Amino acid sequence: MGAVGQTTTGGYLERYDEALARDPTSAFGLVREWMRTDWRALFAELRERRPIFVTPAFTVVTRFADVTEVLSRESVFSVRAFAPRLDAALGGPFMLGRDATAMNWRDKGLMRVMLDPRDVDGVRELAGRLADEALDAAWPDGRVEAVHSLFRHVALGVCAEYFGFPGPDAQTLSRWTRAIVTDGFANFLGDPDVQSASVQAGAEMTAYLRGRLAELRAARRAGHDLPDTVFGRLAGTTLPAGIGVDDERVVVNMAGLPLGFVESAPGAMAEAVEQLLLRPPVLARAVEAARDPDPARFDGYVWEALRFSPFFKLLPRLCEHDHVLAAGTPRATPIPAGTFVLAAPASAMFDADVVAEPDEFRLDRPGHQQLFFGHGHHACLGVHPARVVVCEVLRRLLLRPGVRLLPPPEGRVARSHGIFPDRFVLGLGPEGQE
Ligand code: HEM
Questions:
Q1: Is residue 15 part of a domain?
Q2: Does residue 93's CB lie within 6 angstroms of at least one atom of ligand 1?
Q3: Least confident residue range of 9-13, 209-213, 347-351
Q4: Which of 46, 72, 251, 264 has the lowest CB atom count within 10 Å?
Q5: Does residue 8 sit in the same domain as residue 85?
Q6: What pLDDT does 142 receive?
Q7: Same-domain check for residues 21 and 116
Q8: Domains in the chain, number
Q9: Does one domain contain both 46 and 64?
């Protein structure tokens, strides 16, 4: 299967070098635009001709071995750039803004205990029920606006029922999350309005969580059983004071759950379903697999579809001290301290040195070749629930007859800030009813 949905023109490096000699700002603009619209062809050329692509503004890393090197070397390639925005919103440090610290180690360990991987069957059932409710509601219209009424609806429902974080209501939780994530990961020019909206949302969110924690603690003191949610488990756990898990740590880590989930999961669902719907023969086999009592048969289709358009195409890092990347290979490249490095999992997952026949849609890809949830020190905390939620929602969707792409613009994913999906209308049921 070729590069569905992408144009393959090539010659990017010639156009880039020419623009750089003439007008460096326009060269930077070209690369940003290609990464948005033509990323698969651009990365193919870079992997081949300039696998560590050094520009005056940033360095893009495209080969699998080098992407995993960057993501495994947290003391060289740090996430320090995320810290100011996330700290400002949450009122304290969060693991995704700290590398190799006692805080990161402790908080991630604690949250891994609370997000017990044995919960996944229940989470899958919950996501399936929420998805079916949303699809039943949309069915009479012959169409579904998938981002809000299905994908975000399920993500927010999982936050409410599994994390124990409903917010005052789903709409408010959705607004808080969007404001904080937009500033943290998409406000490249530092727009002060976006920053203050995030700080305001973070203050409201953490105040809400402090109140809810006090209620849970009071219920516990009164001898009531706490709900078996992530928040209930945290509120019911007493660690020795010296460990350093005070109430503020509980609040910040609870805030991190919707921040990790409510944009990423709908993002991954929108990308994967679009890639499946663009490939009718694959889609037909995926629909058949969706009927299998063993959901694992269907899940493989989701992950392979997502490889053709991962939600996280680039993971940014700051180079803390001079480092030779890919040392000992012909592509060894010195990376000076202070370089802004973009590791590209979306490119790594097409690197033919590691991924066999990368342009083919194959279901036999080994899990270690998949970088959807990051790699190394900051690998995703929520990977277990996230996996089953993404797959089960798409399974329930594709079990409905007649799911199809509609003509653009509504039949294409509309994104806020070019990143976060906001609208994607799909046809449902017999054709001609939408
Ligand atoms: C499909 C849904 C999801 C996707 C695609 C996803 C993807 C990722 C990726 C790529 C990273 C690495 C970021 C980096 O290295 O810069 C990451 C980290 C993280 N994710 Fe997720 N994630 C998802 C769902 C979740 C959920 C459900 C949670 C919470 C329960 C969560 C919480 C986190 C946290 C806290 C980190 C940072 C971990 C650390 O700093 O050590 N994510 N995620």
A1: yes
A2: no
A3: 9-13
A4: 72
A5: no
A6: 97
A7: no
A8: 2
A9: no
User: What are the DSSP E strand ranges found in 55-163?
Assistant: 59-61, 77-78, 143-145
- pTM listed for this prediction: 0.95
Task: Determine the pLDDT at residue 434.
Answer: 59
Task: Provide the residue count of the chain.
Answer: 434
Q: Is 310 in the pocket of ligand 1 (CB under 6 A)?
A: no
Q: Candidates 264, 273, 315, 342: which one to mutate for ligand 1, based on the most atoms within 8 Å of Cβ? A: 264
Distance 8 CA to ligand 1 centre (A): 31
**Residue located nearest, by CA, to atom 18 of ligand 1:** 380
Number of H helices, E strands in the chain: 18, 12
For residue 85, tell me if it sits in a domain.
yes
| Segment 96-139, tens digit of pLDDT | 999 999 999 999 999 999 999 999 999 999 999 999 999 999 99
Tens digit of each residue's pLDDT (9 = 90 or more) over 49-85 = 999 999 999 999 999 999 999 999 999 999 999 999 9
- Whether residues 96 and 25 share a domain: the answer is no
Residue 416, strand partner residues: 420
Do 388 and 373 form a contact (C-beta atoms < 8 A)? no
pLDDT at 189: 87
In angstroms, what is the span from residue 120 Cα to ligand 1's centroid? 16
Answer yes or no: do 39 and 74 share one domain.
Answer: no
Residues 8 and 67 grouped into a single domain? no
| Cα–Cα separations (whole angstroms), residue 405 to 76, 134, 286, 426 | 44, 18, 16, 5
- In whole angstroms, how large is the CA radius of gyration of the chain? 22
d(CA 97, CA 84): 8
Q: Which amino acid does the sequence have at 179? A: A
Measured in Å, residue 143 CA sits from the centre of ligand 1 at: 31
- Domain with 341, as residue range(s), is 51-427
Taking the CA of residue 376 as reference, the ligand 1 atom at the shortest distance is: 15
Which ranges of 238-382 would DSSP assign to H, the alpha helix?
247-261, 264-277, 280-290, 296-307, 345-348
| Domain identity same for 7 and 142 | no
